Amino acid sequence: MHVHEAIPRSEYEAAAAWIRERIPFSPRIGLVLGSGLASLADAVEGSIALAFPEIPGFPAATVEGHPGRVIVGQLEGHPVMVLQGRVHFYEGYSVQRITFPIRVMQLLGIRILILTNAAGGLNPAFRPGDVMILRDHIGLFGMAGANPLRGPNEADWGPRFPDLSRAYDPELRALAREVAEAEGIPIHEGVYAMLGGPSFETPAEVRFLRLIGADAVGMSTVPEVIVACHGGMRVLALSGISNVLNPDAFEPPSHEEVLQAGQVLVPRLTAIIRGVLRRI
Ligand code: HPA
């Protein structure tokens, strides 16, 4: 599979129609659950589950901690559509295919998208188990050309040159902070850097990422945020800090550590997301 792939609109429409036939209402809020965070979907009531491989055009998730299901149900009185498990570029899909579900959400009428991910902490103040609200990102991967919007632009999806200076909705960020503080959850706001993965960063790369102003690093989220913003959605993104990266006393991160930290992070992220939904 190449980095890029041209996906016709009809393919997104077929997936949206397939899902629409199987759900009793139209969700307006979407959630994307990152590595080790899949059990956050347990909070969704009266839910219908659709496996990624059944849905036309959906990429099947291949990584442990990512079952790959669409869950539709109610959370805090809001109809929601949850991607339980996401697909990463490093799994071998094109950057357009990994963001396919986001465009399907756009067609289904999703207006607010809440994303979570597991990330390595670069900011020396961060501890494993902390939560970071994304204020901005450094899409190293997209800056180098792997942008999901590459290719002819269809104005029906969004503008050719979308502005990302307000990609992370200030109002939703403020709500998330308010909830975290009320719940006593260690909370930060910061800049997320995305790399393609799957290898973890070298100490020199960690030093570089700190120098350019990144507070956390991961292998997801940015392509989805770009597509969501292109489609006019309001975005809230939360990183669960699963491990910390110190270039001067380097401890190798591991996928097990990421999944384990998820156990502390799931109740924290669940509380923040529930609180935000109660307030919107
Ligand atoms: N680096 C990149 N991605 C990650 C990390 C990390 O240390 N932890 C969780 N996702």
TrEMBL record:
Database matches in CDD domains: PNP-EcPNPII_like
EC number: 2.4.2.1
UniProt pathway: Purine metabolism; purine nucleoside salvage
Gene3D superfamilies documented for this protein: Nucleoside phosphorylase domain (3.40.50.1580)
GO biological process, one term: nucleoside metabolic process
Superkingdom to which the source organism belongs: Bacteria
Listed InterPro entries: Nucleoside_phosphorylase_d, Nucleoside_phosphorylase_sf, Pur_Nuc_Pase_Ino/Guo-sp, Purine_phosphorylase
Keywords: Glycosyltransferase, Transferase
UniProt GO cellular component terms: cytoplasm
UniProt xrefs under Pfam families: PNP_UDP_1
Molecular functions per Gene Ontology: purine-nucleoside phosphorylase activity
Domain Nucleoside phosphorylase intervals: 28-278
Catalytic activity line of the entry: a purine 2'-deoxy-D-ribonucleoside + phosphate = a purine nucleobase + 2-deoxy-alpha-D-ribose 1-phosphate
Entry similarity comment: Belongs to the PNP/MTAP phosphorylase family.
Protein name per the record: Purine nucleoside phosphorylase
Organism: Candidatus Thermoflexus japonica
Taxonomic path: Bacteria, Bacillati, Chloroflexota, Thermoflexia, Thermoflexales
